[in-house]
Write the C-alpha cells for this entry.
Amino acid sequence: NAGVTQTPKFQVLKTGQSMTLQCAQDMNHNSMYWYRQDPGMGLRLIYYSASEGTTDKGEVPNGYNVSRLNKREFSLRLESAAPSQTSVYFCASSTGRGSYNEQFFGPGTRLTVL
Amino acid sequence: KQEVTQIPAALSVPEGENLVLNCSFTDSAIYNLQWFRQDPGKGLTSLLLIQSSQREQTSGRLNASLDKSSGRSTLYIAASQPGDSATYLCALSGGYNKLIFGAGTRLAVHP
C-alpha cells in the first residue's frame, strides 16, 4: 500500500517548456488535490477533483491544467512554464465524504523554472 | 475569505518542555481542522483531525483543541523530544474538503 505517489521527484525546466506532474493513489479515494508550497508559506490549492470526472479551480489555478484520468490518477500540466511557477508541488487525496475527511499527501515534486 | 495564522513562526526549546502551538482563523464555518507535520524536504504527515463538532483530539503526546467561537486551535506537545523538530502546519477544511493552510510553525527541540 503505497498511499499517494508523485513523479517526478525533481524537475528543472526552462521558461516556456511544458511538463506534466503525475499523481496516483491506491486508497480508493474519491477526491484528489494539487497544492503548491512556496518558501515561508503554507500550501495553496491549485485544482481539485471532488470525484472521478470532475475538476475545479482552487485558489491559484492560472497557468495550470489538470486531468482526472481515472479514480486513481490526477495529473497537473504546466503548458508554458514561468519562473513564478518554481515551487514544491504536492498531490493529496481523501475519501471526499463527511466531515471526517482526512487528506493524505504525496512526497512532493520540486520544480525549478529557469 | 478564510485566513489562517500560526503563531509563533519559529520556536526553539530545550528537550522535555511542554509546548503550545497556536492556529487562529477568521471564519468559524469549517468542516474540520487538521494538524500536519512536515520534515525538511519531505511531504506532509497528518497528526490529528478535529471535526467541527468536536473540541479536542489526542494521539500519544499530542493534543489538539478547537474553539470555533473564538477562531482558535492549539496543538499541545508534551515532553518534547529532538525528534519532534519539524514544521507544524494547521489547515482548515471548507466545502469539498478544500484545505486552507497556515504558514506553519518551525519547531527546533535541542538536547
Summary: DSSP finds no helices and eleven strands in chain A.
